[in-house]
Amino acid sequence: MDNPLIVDRLREIVGDDHVLTSDMDLTLYSYDASLDRAMPDVVVLPGSTEEVSRVMALAFREKVPILGRGSGTNLTGGTVPIAGGIVVHFSRMNRILEIDIPNRTATVEPGVITLDFQTQVLKRGFVYQPDPASQKVSTLGGNIGENSGGPHCLKYGVTTNHVLGMEIVLDDGTVVWTGGKCPDSPGYDIKGLLVGSEGTLGLATKIMLKLERAPEAVKTMLAIYDTIQDGANTVSAIIAEGIVPATLEMMDNIVMRAVEKTIKVGYPLDAAAVLIIELDGMPEGMDSHAERIMEICRKNHVREVKLAKDDKERAILWAGRKGAFGAVGQVRPSYVCCDGTVPRTRLPEVLSKVLEVGKKYDVPIGNVFHAGDGNLHPLIMFDDRDPEEKARVLKASSEILKLCAEAGGTISGEHGVGLEKLGETCFVFNDRDLEFERTIKRAFDPADILNPGKLIPDHPCGR
Q: Do the domains spanning 96-213 and 217-326 agree at the CATH topology level?
């Protein structure tokens, strides 16, 4: 950013204490949970929609890149400021503005932590269903940008299925509202376009979310397998039976061992895989569904099925699953998560090929994933201080995503494209598809100042 007066004008908008320019501060905002790094020119912490609008208008006039950021837990480089410019950090805009129980909605600011919000609505007997593993630290604004999912997405869908409306600041500072409390708003589904757009079309400053009554009963089971293929076959068999559990989550031996070193869940370390199966809903009929699921597990060579006796045992099982990504640091200091999705019937085949990729490139791969909807999370573990090993990991990651696409799947289930998957978009889109997306981007952001260089490659496929 060549104009130092812009920093002075940002201070006028948000106050001196909310503009960060030191080398240390800028370094802290130069990365997320991906492998990429890039320094912003300045970080601003607005406290209101009006301040966001004025910051955006300034960036528009000066043609300065601008990037919205929450907690930076995203895994594909979506909040790495590769073009420098202004990072807008929403930590001050962290209020729950309204919980409207009669209409089963809540309106929040983007900086609200996901789990904090879920805890507040649960006190009133309601739930917000999307539950990314990062929910303890991720923000609802970040969930919007990435269209986050989580274990409950099998039954309840991902973030976009729970967004009713949004207040958006456009590239020139204009503030608009889309959607609302009525379920069927007229006009274009702008909120559907914005959710998952990774901050490339506008910045959300208020979000209206759908609430659901908390389930009256929950049953959580742990199924233990001697082969990962048997676990994957169980998943397909459960869905084919017409039963839709709240969750079907799988972990392999590598991940279980890492988890046990940190959380002590009690996973069987001699097993190839475990499957966490959870039912929720009305108490009536749940026992029969649970028995039917255990019968399906037995038909698919399960070693043992354990039923959590109480909330404490259930919480321990989920602590292991939610802590799996962090736990793999026990194996190697860095990892890449591929986040490809395949039709669930292709899970056994694709998982076998993923293991072959690990052998081909001589890198350890642990698997922990949303098995119910075919959303894989192969964790390729390595040391990013070793350039040669890092190069092999990136090749392995790309090859795994290609396997997913060739199996009729796609390159991301919930982590987005960001920087890391720009080249892989050509596995699922052709040049006409990508040019159409560029047309949408230009309509919202003709100067290309909103999180430039993300989501859509700027070159034809094959280059």
A: no
At residue 463, the pLDDT reads 64
CATH 3.40.50.2300 assigned to 96-213: no
**Alpha-helix runs per DSSP H in 160-309:** 190-194, 228-240, 253-262, 286-299
Evaluate if pTM is beyond 0.70.
yes
Percent above pLDDT 70 for the chain: 99
Give domain 217-326's CATH architecture. 2-Layer Sandwich (3.30)
pLDDT tens readout for residues 12-33:
999 999 999 999 999 999 999 9
- 251-260 average pLDDT score: 94
CA separation for the pair 126, 263 (Å, rounded): 29
CATH class of 332-406: alpha beta
Tokens 């301040």 map to which residue?
A: 51
State the Cα–Cα distance between residues 417 and 434, nearest whole angstrom.
13
Does residue 108 surpass a pLDDT of 80? yes
Question: Which of 62, 74, 6 lies closest to 35, judged by CA?
Answer: 74
If we measure between CA atoms, which residue out of 36, 34, 38, 37 comes closest to residue 76?
Answer: 34
What mean pLDDT is predicted for residues 424-439? 97
Domain-by-domain residue ranges, the chain?
5-89, 96-213, 217-326, 332-406
Residue 344 sits at φ, ψ, to 5 deg, of -60, -25
Q: Please give the full DSSP string across 420-440, using - where no structure is assigned.
A: TTTGGGGGT--HHHHHHHHHH
Helix then strand then coil, % of the chain, to nearest 5: 40, 20, 40
**4: exposed, middle or buried (C-beta count within 10 Å: 0-12, 13-18, 19+)?**
exposed
CATH number assigned to the domain with residue range 5-89, chosen from the 4 options 3.30.43.10, 3.40.50.80, 3.40.50.2000, 3.40.50.620 = 3.30.43.10
Look up tokens 């501060």; give the residue: 25
**Strand pairing of 86-89 and 66-69?**
parallel
Residues 6+ away with beta carbon under 8 Å from 117: 96, 106, 108, 128, 140
Residue 253's alpha-carbon distances to 235, 270, 444, in angstroms, are 18, 8, 46
pLDDT digits (tens, 9 = 90+) for 292-330: 999 999 999 999 999 999 999 999 999 999 999 989 988
Tokens of 325: 């990504």
pLDDT at 183: 80
Report pLDDT digits (tens) over 52-93.
Answer: 999 999 999 999 999 999 999 999 999 999 999 999 999 999
